[in-house]
Amino acid sequence: MNPDATLDPPDPGDSAPKYVMNAEERAEYERLRRHAAVHHRRIRLAGSSVLLLVALLLAPLAVVAAWVHDTVSDTDRYVATVAPLASEPAVQEAVINRLTDRVVENVNVEAITDALAGALQDAGAPPRVVEGADALTGPLRNAVRTVVDRTVSRVITSDVFQQAWEGANRRAHAAVVNMLTGDNKGAVRAEGDTVQLDVGEVIDQVRQRLVDAGFDKAAAIPDSDRTITLFQVEELGKAQDAMRLLDILGTWLPVVTVALAALAVWTAPSHRVMLVITATGLGVMMVLLLVALALARRVYLDSVPPSALPPDAAAAIYDMFVRFLRNTTRTLLVVFVITALAAYLYGPGRLARAVRATTERSTTAAGRALHRAGVHTGSTGHWLTGHRAWTTGIVIAAGALALILWNHPTVGAVALVLGITVALLIVLAVLAAATGPAAGREDRAAAP
Description:
Helix content: over 70%
Structural class: mainly alpha
Shape: elongated
Distance between the termini: 60 Å
Order of helices and strands: HHHHHHHHEEHEHHHHHHHHH
Number of strands: 3
Strand content: under 5%
Largest sheet: 3 strands, antiparallel
Number of helices: 18
Strand order of the largest sheet: 1-2-3
Radius of gyration: 37 Å
């Protein structure tokens, strides 16, 4: 019989005696247990890595999908996107030049000078005077263009044009959906490989102003000139298909991406390390998205011929349309950088320990100074000291909730929430230290 293997005394409550392992069996058990733990750790690490990879690949697409969904479904968001175009100098100059050219083309200056020459000849004017009437063609055309340009500029740069622009876009918000689905209705429409904006209402106002100013020929501005090319894409059909897919996934794709990232952190053996890796990876993807937007801008500007739209106006239009997407990407980049930095500072690194120690000494010194000045937090300070982890978590969670509930937060909003959160944590730490360094020991010494 093995002397190391013994039976415990039978317990009245047990139906079978307990078996005690010997040293060899205990060693084998521990070896198998460590092997199972390592195997389980590898499985968790592999699973979290796959989840993280999928989340990183979906992150840029989720941001773009959410931007498209917000721009299409929210009328205020759409109007806020396109309304500033009416006050953009480059766009105003393009519209003024386009309308002025069309009006001047419909004014037959040669016919006017020919009629003047004929009238002078019939009146018996000298031949030199009659020939001088033909020389008035150039100056008269310049004068007509100057007057027309001044009248058109007065309309385009006025508040009337901006109000008409905003009102037309607000009423025609469904036109954005039509552009994405390829339905040629509304103010924004797809024609072949171009996306055009119908400015008919503006042209009507300009035409009426010119007629009132005495240019009856302005009434002949053709309807074919009532559109301005915004975009020119070689494969607009594929882009529309991609937009439809992004619109469909705009609501759920961001949710799925966040869920996958959270699962990657939760399933990882080390939650803090995986949080640092996840936040850093998502930040890198936001940088890549910003680079992609810059490259797309160059491709767009190269695809628009100067005859259709001046380069400065095309650049202004692109920047105006994607500015909310760019701002959102920058905001997320800042959030991910802050998250990675905060997760690192909670770790065992030398720099993290130094930062925590410096912060602890500073708040403790401030709390003791308040205590010496006569400010005593008493039981509240003791409670804050004993529940520091809970109070810290609540404050951080409240800051994260504020950003989630914020409607389209910007980098400034993130900085504001971060500042308030850090300030609250510092105040709580100071109040916890204001109980005094020896208050607890003095109370215990005075107790019977």
